[in-house]
Design goal:
chemotaxis; 2 domains; SpoA-like_sf; 6-stranded antiparallel β-sheet; cell membrane; 329 residues; Chemotaxis protein chec; 4-stranded antiparallel β-sheet; flagellar rotation; 10 strands
């Protein structure tokens, strides 16, 4: 960001130009020179600042969810936060990580390609020690994993992938399937060396040990969903979800509203004298035949026609058709 000049500096600059101490043409030439920037084609910038900010927000949520997941799984103090989000060539990323480390390669279906999560051994073996019942002592074990260690770490990292899916749910629903667990990055070739990748570094503290968890996302894998990483898309999606949630809440409330439903067998008119003389067994003749459909009223309004019957030894009415306005006429 350019420095902001104070009023005194502006006055001094105008005074120097007016007195000839400073040439305005030279200032213009210097300004034109500053517009030229060096561009390295080997280090291509493929992600916009807007997309980088969106990825940062997604993984800030991921780090919070992962803190809760690992705390419950390891039963010890865990603190994870986003340290940096950078885009760089894949070859440079591989060169920056230790020669022996924990590399979790997984496929984010339906996206085509693979993602990579690199866990520093200083952190990985603390988690392994806790899973085996230890105190979580920090030691850097540079060795090939045994079958038991591999199985335990795969189960732990699978829980991490489930949390990763949850963090990305706002952008795309993915099914992360673990492909391999490697220890040597030199034998791992996911994409071409010059392919641009985004590396999200998570600062991780487990018990008294600290280290980094690096998430490598190749541009070629994310390319089809990059439009969804813009702020405009996020705001529009949130508004649609908010409207949809309001509509569902209103629909659920309306569905729970009680209604009075009546099936009318017919009508009849009698005098008060006849009404007072009614006794059990008397028959009242209605204005409707037994083969005519019954009127079904909802909240006092005629809505349907039906026929009487029984269901599980209880009186019931079967709706046969809907009443239409003006049908009687």
């Amino acid at each position: 960001m350019a420095d902001v000049l104070s009023q005194n500096e502006i006055d001094a600059l105008l005074s120097a130009i007016s007195t000839g101490e400073m040439d305005a043409e030279e200032l213009r030439k210097e300004e034109e020179k500053q517009k030229i920037h060096t561009y390295d084609f080997k280090r291509a910038v493929r992600f916009s600042k807007d997309q980088i900010r969106s990825l940062s927000r997604i993984h800030e949520n991921f780090s919070r969810l992962l803190t809760t997941t690992f705390s419950a799984q390891l039963r010890t103090f865990v603190q994870i936060s986003v340290a940096s989000v950078d885009q760089l060539p894949y070859e440079e990323f591989i060169s920056s990580i230790p020669q022996m480390t924990l590399l979790n390669v997984f496929e984010p279906y339906p996206l085509e390609g693979r993602f990579l999560v690199e866990v520093n051994p200083n952190i990985g073996y603390v988690m392994l020690d806790r899973m085996l019942g230890g105190k979580g002592a920090s030691f850097n074990k540079i060795d090939t994993l045994t079958e038991i260690e591999t199985r335990i770490l795969k189960q732990l990292f699978q829980r991490m992938l489930e949390t990763f899916q949850e963090a990305w749910e706002s952008v795309i629903s993915i099914e992360a399937e673990m492909h391999a667990l490697e220890v040597n990055p030199q034998f791992l070739q996911m994409v071409s060396p010059n392919e641009t990748v985004v590396v999200i570094s998570l600062s991780t503290t487990i018990n008294e040990a600290s280290g980094m968890i690096n998430i490598c996302l190749p541009h070629v894998v994310l390319e089809e969903i990059l439009p969804k990483l813009s702020v405009h898309y996020w705001m529009q999606t949130k508004k649609q979800k908010r409207d949809s949630n309001h509509e569902k809440a209103l629909q659920a409330t309306v569905q729970k509203a009680p209604l009075t439903v009546q099936a009318l067998l017919g009508h009849s008119q009698i005098s008060i004298e006849d009404f007072l003389q009614l006794s059990p067994g008397d028959v009242i003749q209605l204005n409707q035949g037994i083969h005519e459909p019954l009127e079904i009223h909802v909240e006092g309004e005629k809505k349907y026609y039906g026929q009487p019957g029984k269901m599980k030894n209880k009186m019931a009415v079967q709706v046969t058709r809907e009443y239409e306005e003006g049908e009687e006429n």
